[in-house]
Amino acid sequence: MTDFLPFALPDVGEPEIEAMVAAVRSGWVSSGPKVKEFEAAFADAIGEGVEAVALNSATAGLHLGLEAIGIGPGDEVLVPTWTFTATAEVVRYLGAIPVLVDVDPVILNIDLADAATKVTAATRAVMPVHFAGFPIDHDAIAAFAATHGLAVVEDAAHAFPASYGGVNVGAGTSEATVYSFYATKTMTTGEGGMLVTRDSELAQRVRVMRLHGINRDAFDRYRSDKPAWHYEVVAPGYKYNLTDPAAAMGLVQLDRAVQMRDRRGEIASVYDSAFADLDLELPAGGGEGVGHAWHLYVVRLPAGGDRDAFVRAMAERGVGTSVHFIPLHMQPYWRDLGEHARDDFPVAAREFDRVVSLPIFSSMTAEQVQKVVTAVRKTLTSGGGVG
Length: 387
Ligand SMILES: *Cc1c(COP(=O)(O)O)cnc(C)c1O
Known about the structure:
binds pyridoxal-5'-phosphate; alpha/beta; seven-stranded mixed sheet; 2 domains; 12 strands
């Protein structure tokens, strides 16, 4: 099993290593000029004059985005059940309540019809998740938010780079959009995240709250004409800053992001044609106006198929797979908090039993892609996984 193909690997090489080493040599081992450079370059990549604030995770960005729009105890925030726990946990950090919403059966994103039934007088915000990197229709979200008077904080952990109708994810009208640079995401800084917004005041609040509620960070103090030791604490903030070595890695990854996305898109096309004749539901792909980030390639077994047997058979053939996601309402904490039954979210409950994520990382070789194709075909044609 030495040639076991893992489900995901970061696509990081010598240029990233050299950039990190140079950052360490510069002496700025915490947050300094590379963080500023990374923020400016990322904001440029999104366009539309957004501001970008670097953080040490997407979770931090989601937390501070909600904090900046004033979410607090008693407020309700609409969150799709089909997501990672981070999307909902940050709502709890603020003492507010995540109200779970079912997903649409095609792209597994928040179902706005179901969301509408869950709006109450306490609802303050909605958190769409660009699942797998398939961009959400931002006009539909914006219209929904306007109708119900809600703020929008987008979880774009899977969605860099992605666009809908020619507009980049993050460049729309939402209050904030948050990206993840975790090890296995579409670009990485090891750990890291970025919040983008068109609202300068919101950006400023996030900058302050990411570093102890201090109104100027170390780099500004170093450059300003005030004495270097002077700072003001204006709120009980957090410790969420990104470091320069991480930002240096991020700058290299950012340069390569479109090329890495294109490679994942190619792998998706290979899978699409190789599996076209199988009894397998393939993920919704491109289509008019859809700039897919292809973070995940999620196939669905036929109803009644045995997903767990499929995962085991793939592993026996040397291929790692994963499952995205175990719906939140099926996790003990969220289930108990919302007093949920499995079938409260019928689409999520049904689709969860069928989904498998196949490897789709940009450093995969043609042979590794073929290995996945062969393993899937053998597994399905030998009866494994279809029950
Ligand atoms: C990975 C992920 C996050 C959290 O990202 P971190 O950078 O690890 O905090 C949030 N939401 C979704 C949907 C994710 O997949």
